[in-house]
Amino acid sequence: MSEHSAFYLPVSDTEFTSTPATASPWDSALQHGGPPAALLARAIEHCEPAESMPIARMTVDFLGGIPQGRIRTEARIVRPGKRVELVEAELWANDKLAVRASAWRIRRQPGATAHVATPVVLPPPVPAPAPARFFDGVDEDWGYGHAIDWRFTTGDFDTLGPAKVWARAKIPLVEGEPTSGTQRLMLIADSANGLSGEMPMSEWLFIPPTLTVTVQREPDAEWLFLEAASTIGPDGTGIAQGSISDDKGLLCRIAQPLLVAPRG
Q1: Is the pTM of this model over 0.85?
Q2: Where do the Acyl-CoA thioesterase-like C-terminal domain residues begin and end (predicted)?
Protein backbone atom coordinates (compact mmCIF):
# COMPACT_ATOMS: atom_id res chain seq x y z
CA MET A 1 0.00 0.00 0.00
CA SER A 2 1.29 3.47 -0.85
CA GLU A 3 2.32 5.40 2.25
CA HIS A 4 0.50 8.47 0.90
CA SER A 5 -3.23 9.01 1.41
CA ALA A 6 -3.85 10.46 -2.08
CA PHE A 7 -2.14 11.99 -5.10
CA TYR A 8 -3.49 15.41 -4.10
CA LEU A 9 -4.68 17.00 -0.87
CA PRO A 10 -7.60 19.39 -1.39
CA VAL A 11 -7.34 23.04 -0.36
CA SER A 12 -10.61 23.96 -2.12
CA ASP A 13 -12.61 22.46 -5.00
CA THR A 14 -10.08 23.87 -7.48
CA GLU A 15 -6.88 24.09 -5.41
CA PHE A 16 -4.68 21.25 -4.19
CA THR A 17 -1.30 20.33 -2.76
CA SER A 18 0.55 17.57 -4.58
CA THR A 19 1.98 14.65 -2.61
CA PRO A 20 5.08 12.52 -3.34
CA ALA A 21 2.70 9.96 -4.92
CA THR A 22 2.68 12.18 -8.02
CA ALA A 23 6.49 12.06 -8.42
CA SER A 24 8.22 11.65 -11.78
CA PRO A 25 10.56 8.65 -11.99
CA TRP A 26 13.49 10.93 -12.93
CA ASP A 27 13.03 13.92 -10.62
CA SER A 28 10.99 13.79 -7.42
CA ALA A 29 10.62 17.59 -7.56
CA LEU A 30 8.48 17.12 -10.69
CA GLN A 31 5.21 15.25 -11.26
CA HIS A 32 4.53 12.25 -13.49
CA GLY A 33 2.06 13.23 -16.23
CA GLY A 34 -0.67 10.84 -15.08
CA PRO A 35 -1.90 12.58 -11.90
CA PRO A 36 -2.10 16.10 -13.47
CA ALA A 37 -3.95 14.62 -16.48
CA ALA A 38 -6.41 12.93 -14.11
CA LEU A 39 -6.85 16.15 -12.13
CA LEU A 40 -7.74 17.97 -15.35
CA ALA A 41 -10.26 15.23 -16.15
CA ARG A 42 -11.77 15.95 -12.75
CA ALA A 43 -11.95 19.68 -13.53
CA ILE A 44 -13.67 18.94 -16.85
CA GLU A 45 -16.15 16.56 -15.20
CA HIS A 46 -16.96 19.20 -12.56
CA CYS A 47 -17.59 21.90 -15.20
CA GLU A 48 -21.38 22.12 -15.56
CA PRO A 49 -21.55 18.36 -14.98
CA ALA A 50 -23.99 16.08 -16.77
CA GLU A 51 -23.76 12.35 -16.05
CA SER A 52 -25.16 11.56 -19.50
CA MET A 53 -22.31 13.45 -21.25
CA PRO A 54 -19.01 11.80 -20.28
CA ILE A 55 -15.60 12.63 -21.74
CA ALA A 56 -15.19 10.98 -25.15
CA ARG A 57 -11.82 12.45 -26.16
CA MET A 58 -9.29 14.27 -24.01
CA THR A 59 -6.04 15.84 -25.16
CA VAL A 60 -3.53 17.01 -22.56
CA ASP A 61 -0.67 19.34 -23.54
CA PHE A 62 2.27 19.45 -21.13
CA LEU A 63 3.93 22.87 -21.34
CA GLY A 64 7.05 21.74 -19.47
CA GLY A 65 8.01 19.98 -16.26
CA ILE A 66 5.21 20.11 -13.68
CA PRO A 67 6.63 21.03 -10.26
CA GLN A 68 5.42 19.71 -6.95
CA GLY A 69 3.54 22.20 -4.79
CA ARG A 70 0.29 24.16 -4.93
CA ILE A 71 -1.92 23.20 -7.86
CA ARG A 72 -4.94 25.04 -9.26
CA THR A 73 -7.34 23.95 -12.02
CA GLU A 74 -9.81 25.89 -14.16
CA ALA A 75 -12.33 24.65 -16.73
CA ARG A 76 -14.91 26.21 -19.06
CA ILE A 77 -17.25 25.11 -21.84
CA VAL A 78 -16.17 26.69 -25.12
CA ARG A 79 -18.65 24.95 -27.43
CA PRO A 80 -21.93 24.02 -25.73
CA GLY A 81 -24.32 21.53 -27.31
CA LYS A 82 -27.15 19.11 -26.61
CA ARG A 83 -25.29 16.05 -27.95
CA VAL A 84 -21.63 17.12 -28.08
CA GLU A 85 -19.74 19.88 -26.30
CA LEU A 86 -16.13 21.03 -26.01
CA VAL A 87 -14.52 21.85 -22.67
CA GLU A 88 -11.11 23.41 -22.07
CA ALA A 89 -9.13 23.25 -18.83
CA GLU A 90 -5.86 24.52 -17.40
CA LEU A 91 -3.62 23.40 -14.57
CA TRP A 92 -1.43 25.92 -12.78
CA ALA A 93 1.49 24.79 -10.62
CA ASN A 94 2.84 27.31 -8.11
CA ASP A 95 1.02 30.09 -10.05
CA LYS A 96 2.57 29.13 -13.41
CA LEU A 97 0.53 27.63 -16.26
CA ALA A 98 1.82 24.05 -16.60
CA VAL A 99 -0.77 21.97 -18.51
CA ARG A 100 -3.64 22.65 -20.91
CA ALA A 101 -6.35 20.21 -21.87
CA SER A 102 -9.39 20.00 -24.12
CA ALA A 103 -12.14 17.42 -24.07
CA TRP A 104 -15.15 16.55 -26.18
CA ARG A 105 -18.10 15.27 -24.20
CA ILE A 106 -20.67 13.17 -26.09
CA ARG A 107 -24.15 12.35 -24.84
CA ARG A 108 -24.75 8.68 -24.11
CA GLN A 109 -27.74 6.87 -25.61
CA PRO A 110 -28.05 3.66 -23.57
CA GLY A 111 -28.75 0.64 -25.75
CA ALA A 112 -29.05 2.65 -28.98
CA THR A 113 -26.32 0.69 -30.80
CA ALA A 114 -26.35 -2.60 -28.87
CA HIS A 115 -27.41 -4.52 -32.00
CA VAL A 116 -24.35 -3.31 -33.99
CA ALA A 117 -21.73 -3.16 -31.22
CA THR A 118 -18.26 -4.51 -32.06
CA PRO A 119 -17.53 -7.99 -30.64
CA VAL A 120 -15.76 -7.80 -27.29
CA VAL A 121 -12.13 -8.96 -26.91
CA LEU A 122 -11.33 -9.74 -23.29
CA PRO A 123 -7.87 -9.35 -21.71
CA PRO A 124 -6.14 -12.14 -19.75
CA PRO A 125 -6.84 -12.54 -16.03
CA VAL A 126 -5.10 -10.35 -13.45
CA PRO A 127 -1.89 -12.17 -12.39
CA ALA A 128 -0.86 -12.81 -8.81
CA PRO A 129 1.18 -10.09 -7.05
CA ALA A 130 4.91 -9.93 -7.76
CA PRO A 131 7.68 -7.68 -6.42
CA ALA A 132 7.96 -4.46 -8.43
CA ARG A 133 11.36 -3.55 -9.88
CA PHE A 134 11.29 -0.12 -11.50
CA PHE A 135 13.30 1.31 -14.39
CA ASP A 136 17.07 1.06 -14.12
CA GLY A 137 18.36 4.14 -12.28
CA VAL A 138 15.02 5.07 -10.71
CA ASP A 139 14.78 5.51 -6.94
CA GLU A 140 13.25 2.47 -5.25
CA ASP A 141 11.00 4.90 -3.34
CA TRP A 142 9.48 6.31 -6.55
CA GLY A 143 6.15 7.74 -5.37
CA TYR A 144 3.96 7.25 -8.45
CA GLY A 145 5.37 3.77 -9.01
CA HIS A 146 4.38 2.66 -5.51
CA ALA A 147 0.96 4.37 -5.70
CA ILE A 148 -0.08 1.98 -8.52
CA ASP A 149 -0.38 -1.80 -8.24
CA TRP A 150 1.32 -3.16 -11.39
CA ARG A 151 0.73 -6.75 -12.60
CA PHE A 152 2.54 -7.42 -15.92
CA THR A 153 1.44 -10.12 -18.35
CA THR A 154 4.03 -9.13 -20.99
CA GLY A 155 7.26 -7.24 -20.34
CA ASP A 156 8.06 -5.21 -17.24
CA PHE A 157 9.68 -1.90 -16.31
CA ASP A 158 13.14 -3.05 -17.38
CA THR A 159 12.18 -4.95 -20.55
CA LEU A 160 12.38 -3.05 -23.84
CA GLY A 161 9.49 -3.18 -26.29
CA PRO A 162 5.72 -3.60 -26.01
CA ALA A 163 4.19 -4.13 -22.58
CA LYS A 164 0.89 -5.44 -21.25
CA VAL A 165 0.03 -4.78 -17.62
CA TRP A 166 -2.91 -4.73 -15.27
CA ALA A 167 -2.82 -1.58 -13.12
CA ARG A 168 -4.84 -0.32 -10.17
CA ALA A 169 -4.45 2.92 -8.23
CA LYS A 170 -3.98 2.13 -4.55
CA ILE A 171 -5.02 5.61 -3.40
CA PRO A 172 -7.62 8.17 -4.52
CA LEU A 173 -6.76 11.01 -6.87
CA VAL A 174 -7.98 13.59 -4.35
CA GLU A 175 -8.10 12.81 -0.65
CA GLY A 176 -11.61 12.33 0.69
CA GLU A 177 -13.45 11.76 -2.60
CA PRO A 178 -14.00 8.84 -4.98
CA THR A 179 -11.94 8.67 -8.18
CA SER A 180 -14.12 8.52 -11.29
CA GLY A 181 -13.61 5.96 -14.03
CA THR A 182 -12.23 8.52 -16.49
CA GLN A 183 -9.88 9.92 -13.86
CA ARG A 184 -8.53 6.39 -13.33
CA LEU A 185 -7.96 6.01 -17.08
CA MET A 186 -6.00 9.27 -17.21
CA LEU A 187 -3.94 8.29 -14.16
CA ILE A 188 -2.27 5.45 -16.09
CA ALA A 189 -2.63 6.46 -19.78
CA ASP A 190 0.52 8.62 -19.71
CA SER A 191 2.51 5.52 -18.73
CA ALA A 192 2.13 4.07 -22.24
CA ASN A 193 5.36 5.58 -23.55
CA GLY A 194 7.50 4.75 -20.52
CA LEU A 195 6.40 1.13 -20.28
CA SER A 196 6.93 0.43 -24.00
CA GLY A 197 10.28 2.14 -24.55
CA GLU A 198 12.38 0.73 -27.38
CA MET A 199 15.65 2.02 -25.86
CA PRO A 200 16.97 2.16 -22.28
CA MET A 201 15.54 5.11 -20.35
CA SER A 202 18.89 5.50 -18.59
CA GLU A 203 20.50 6.35 -21.96
CA TRP A 204 17.69 7.90 -24.02
CA LEU A 205 14.93 10.46 -23.62
CA PHE A 206 11.55 9.79 -25.20
CA ILE A 207 9.40 12.69 -24.09
CA PRO A 208 5.68 12.98 -24.94
CA PRO A 209 4.67 16.67 -24.96
CA THR A 210 1.03 15.70 -25.34
CA LEU A 211 -1.38 12.83 -24.64
CA THR A 212 -4.65 12.01 -26.40
CA VAL A 213 -7.10 9.50 -24.95
CA THR A 214 -10.24 8.54 -26.87
CA VAL A 215 -12.80 6.89 -24.60
CA GLN A 216 -15.40 4.35 -25.70
CA ARG A 217 -16.75 3.81 -22.20
CA GLU A 218 -15.80 4.39 -18.59
CA PRO A 219 -14.54 1.50 -16.45
CA ASP A 220 -16.72 0.01 -13.74
CA ALA A 221 -13.95 -1.81 -11.87
CA GLU A 222 -10.62 -0.66 -10.42
CA TRP A 223 -8.31 -2.95 -12.40
CA LEU A 224 -7.32 -1.62 -15.85
CA PHE A 225 -5.40 -3.52 -18.55
CA LEU A 226 -2.90 -1.30 -20.40
CA GLU A 227 -1.38 -2.49 -23.70
CA ALA A 228 1.36 -0.22 -25.03
CA ALA A 229 3.87 -0.15 -27.90
CA SER A 230 6.25 2.47 -29.27
CA THR A 231 7.87 3.02 -32.66
CA ILE A 232 10.96 5.17 -33.28
CA GLY A 233 11.52 6.99 -36.58
CA PRO A 234 14.88 7.94 -38.14
CA ASP A 235 14.71 11.66 -37.37
CA GLY A 236 14.37 11.97 -33.60
CA THR A 237 10.64 11.40 -33.27
CA GLY A 238 8.45 8.47 -32.41
CA ILE A 239 4.92 7.39 -31.54
CA ALA A 240 3.62 5.64 -28.44
CA GLN A 241 0.23 3.98 -28.80
CA GLY A 242 -1.89 1.94 -26.49
CA SER A 243 -5.26 0.85 -25.27
CA ILE A 244 -6.88 0.28 -21.91
CA SER A 245 -9.45 -2.46 -21.29
CA ASP A 246 -11.19 -3.98 -18.30
CA ASP A 247 -12.76 -7.38 -17.75
CA LYS A 248 -15.64 -6.36 -20.05
CA GLY A 249 -13.50 -5.23 -23.00
CA LEU A 250 -12.11 -2.06 -24.58
CA LEU A 251 -12.27 1.23 -22.67
CA CYS A 252 -10.04 3.68 -24.57
CA ARG A 253 -7.20 4.20 -27.01
CA ILE A 254 -4.04 6.25 -26.35
CA ALA A 255 -1.69 8.17 -28.67
CA GLN A 256 1.46 10.15 -27.85
CA PRO A 257 4.07 11.75 -30.14
CA LEU A 258 7.63 11.38 -28.82
CA LEU A 259 10.74 13.53 -28.82
CA VAL A 260 13.60 11.00 -28.93
CA ALA A 261 17.17 11.98 -28.07
CA PRO A 262 20.24 10.67 -26.22
CA ARG A 263 20.59 11.79 -22.62
CA GLY A 264 23.33 14.26 -21.80
Answers
A1: yes
A2: 134-260
